[in-house]
Structures are given as structure tokens and as C-alpha cells.
Specification:
The chain is mainly alpha-helical. It has a domain of 39 residues. It is 60% helix and 0% strand. The protein is built from three helices and no strands. Helix 1 runs antiparallel to helix 3. It is rod-shaped.
Length: 67
């Protein structure tokens, strides 16, 4: 007679998936926040960064899921 044993994982099967999903959502929130800040910069701050207003507008208008 064969010995049948059941193996159970100690972690939930989706535990890693939820962690990665949380990291993705955190990244998206950070990008959205940074782009809002860029959109609100005044001309002096843009000059201090050494960027053009077109570069700022391009970056600030990107959706949060894009790099």
C-alpha cells in the first residue's frame, strides 16, 4: 500500500502576489504625487532644476502607471 502524505504550505499561496501588488500601488502613488508637485512648480524652481517648462509639462502629464 502506498504512503500518501499531504503537504501544506505555511504561507497563503497569494502572499507574495499581494506584497508585489502593494509595491506597485505604492510606486504609482509616489509617481502621481511627484508629478503633481512638478505641475505646481513656479518658473524660478523650474530654472533652478535646469529644466524647461516643456520638459516639466511633458513629465507632469504622463499617467501614473508610466515611467
Amino acid at each position: 500500500m502506498a504512503d500518501v502524505s499531504l503537504h501544506y504550505r505555511t504561507q497563503a499561496p497569494l502572499a507574495g502576489t499581494f506584497e508585489v501588488l502593494g509595491q506597485v500601488l505604492a510606486t504609482w502613488r509616489r509617481r502621481a504625487s511627484e508629478r503633481r508637485e512638478l505641475a505646481n512648480l513656479d518658473a524660478r524652481a523650474i530654472r533652478d532644476l535646469g529644466l524647461s517648462s516643456g520638459q516639466i509639462q511633458f513629465e507632469a502629464s504622463k499617467p501614473f502607471w508610466r515611467r
